[in-house]
Amino acid sequence: RRHDAGGNYLAAAVVAELYKDGVWELTDKLNDALKIKKNLVVNGLAEAGADVCVSSNPTGGLFVWVRFPDDVDQEKLLRLTAERNFRYAPGANFHIHGTQVPYLRLAFGHVPDDVIRAGMPVLAQCLREARTSNEPRQFETLFD
Hints:
Aspartate Aminotransferase, domain 1; 10% strand; 4 helices
């Protein structure tokens, strides 16, 4: 029993041709490069910012989510990171109601490895400077 309009045969034919022409090899190469970048983000944050944040460790994709303490002044964080040429997407951009939440999203796919290496300590320091207290971080994972 069908519950949709059926498959898109043109799209399926295009994808089939891509697979014939070696897309798997390209995909493997891209996946290897993206895994290196993702690991630079995750490991860099763990090394430079374990006191102020935790991050996701995705098995795929182009983004890492970062959780930080509730006492981070997010307007100050945006200002500090902008002054240091560090860009991220605030968690509010992804909240269903646009509510400010203590999360941010990092895109790593297009960022050179050396920029990622240099950037993770910058983000960690900006998070420290944007805090309004000196209390230890009260969470261990993204969602506890």
